[in-house]
Specification:
88% helix
């Protein structure tokens, strides 16, 4: 985020105060130079030229201040985008081309977010299926374990019965 909430207003106020002070200062300097040129220089053409030059300088200065204000508006808007606020109504003086690019960026971000949500949902569904398969596999393993325990007990019983039969057979054979 470029600006914190409480500093946005402070930065805006400082920028406006600085702009107003600079504009007043340049105007006073221009008026002073105009007065000096009229009182010290008697040539009318030279005075008109000097006033034109001062007017051009004042115009360039105010144009520069306007661009700084426009830059501040862009930075503030980018800060709002960082907070996922894409309200284009708050932008003043930004060219249509820039607004079109911002809208394009907004659509791309929305599309990316939508794709991320879809992918996350798909991954969640796959994880649920894996959990279900794992649970079924665990139940099958428990069933196989139980069956093997029963088979083991049956084998032990059969072994005992075979030993006892073998012993009886030996007894019968011995008695014969």
């Amino acid at each position: 985020m470029f600006f914190e909430e409480n500093t946005k207003e402070e930065v805006s106020r400082k920028l406006k105060n600085k702009t107003l002070f600079s504009l007043i200062l340049v105007s006073f300097i221009g008026l002073g130079l105009s007065y000096l040129s009229i009182s010290l220089i008697g040539n009318v053409y030279l005075n008109i030229g000097l006033i034109l030059i001062l007017s051009i300088v004042l115009g360039l200065f105010s144009y520069n201040l306007h661009n700084k204000n426009l830059l501040f508006n862009l930075l503030e808007y980018i800060s709002n985008i960082n907070d996922l606020d894409f309200d284009l109504n708050q932008i003043e003086g930004i060219p249509d081309e820039a607004i079109a690019n911002i809208e394009k960026l907004y659509k791309n971000i929305r599309g990316s977010l939508k794709t991320q949500v879809e992918i996350s949902t798909e991954i969640f569904n796959i994880v649920e299926e894996l959990a279900l398969s794992t649970s079924e596999s665990l139940e099958s393993t428990k069933l196989i374990n139980s069956s093997m325990a029963i088979a083991d007990n049956n084998i032990v019983e059969q072994n005992t019965m075979l030993k006892s039969t073998n012993q009886l057979s030996e007894e019968i054979y011995s008695s014969m």
